Fold each of these.
Amino acid sequence: MNCETRVWDDKESLSRAVAEEIEKIAAASISDHGRFDLVLAGGHTPRRLYEILCSDYRERIDWSRTHLFWSDERYVAQDDPLSNYRMAQQALVIPLGISEGNVHPMPTYFADPDEAAQSYEKMLRGHFGPEGPKFDLVLLGIGPEGHTASLFPGSPALNEVERWVVPVKVSAKPPLRLTLTFAALDSATDVFFLLSGESKKDIVRKLLSPSPEEQGEVYPAACVHPKGRTILFLDRAAQP
Ligand code: 6PG
């Protein structure tokens, strides 16, 4: 995986470093095109970052010009403890009081998840226009087998080149998800991966210095190629 790597002592300093970068990108995006389009990662790692953004960065980022999207969503109700939206709602959206029109959760109320994916894509087309999504920053995590968003190794979604959002069945719990595709993720200017803790050490090693037999593996996280920077933010515990 060819990207910049930045290492911090612990999750707290990692989260603070990412928040600082987000402030810079937000200011540059708003000055350049009047808006900051930010994709939030799911999972547990980014929670501390979201708490820092809504406390220390409440006044330092123009949230009235910031739009929040999700990289993926578990196909559960928004009040389900497994919901990525619920985590961000508690840690960032509610405490920040950001306007509802700026918050774009993936819908999980359709009986057919494919309809949900189409509905989210329709919203994105309305927001960005037909030429396609152009997220200013995408935040992502990486799972132990190299998945990112809900793009897992071997998934047919890895080969999707037209659609920006698709439903997927995955090995993790819950099995049904919605995910942005590489077509949407790669539209980003910058992509930040956030990894913290011992459990990430092995996948970081595989991504950065795979053994000869691992070199043939396809890790979805290594297949994200944005227009600008890809930065791996690690804490020491996740560093191989
Ligand atoms: C999800 C995420 C997923 C996550 C990684 C890392 O819905 O689970 O989008 O891609 O970012 O699995 O998760 P942790 O941060 O909890 O380790």
Note: Residues 41-45, 71-72, 74, 84, 141-143, 147-150 surround 6-phosphogluconic acid (CB under 6 Å).
Amino acid sequence: MKPHIRILVLAFALLGAIGIAYGLNILEYRQNEGSARNLPGTVTTGEIQIGGAFAMVNQNGETVTEKSWPNQYRLIFFGFTHCPDVCPTELGKMTQALNLMGKNADKLQPIFVSLDPGRDTPAALKEYVALFNPKLVGLTGTPEQVETIRKAYRVYAAKVGDGDDYMVDHSAFIYLMAPNGDFIDVFQPDDSAEDMAKRLALLIK
Ligand code: NI
């Protein structure tokens, strides 16, 4: 082979290798992105069974169910009012995303569900939700009612510690549900308020 042809062949081989490596990287990136979206347990995108019937008590002491917001998309987050970091961060982010959406945010009902019915009375929730967003609804109930909605949304929660100072370890997904109660999408702690606002604008009609 003449030297200049050999160089050409090498150059093409190198370009090919870069192309393959690049393609593989993209594939791997897509796969990672896909798996990061998956929820704990055996849930896979496309066949997600999240949501369902519930009866809870809101911050004003009124009973509400999954049918209480027939014309609203819902953004639902689970936590507890004594949470030192995750809940304030995520609820703050949810509020910020709604603010970024302007008028479109009117189609969304933000909801905070307590995983700590022992301490989170309607009165405690009323004070708490007001810190974030005047539109934010707080839900609590009997331990059985909370367990029903927790299971329906496949939320992880575990009490840690004893006495009055216990904590509740919990998953930190924000669920987007349709006005008819169907699951649409989930936001994670990694998603910024800007990410959320952008995706919400595409997802709600
Ligand atoms: Ni929390």
Note: The beta strands are 55-58, 63-65, 73-79, 108-114, 137-140, 157-160, 167-170, 174-177, 183-187.
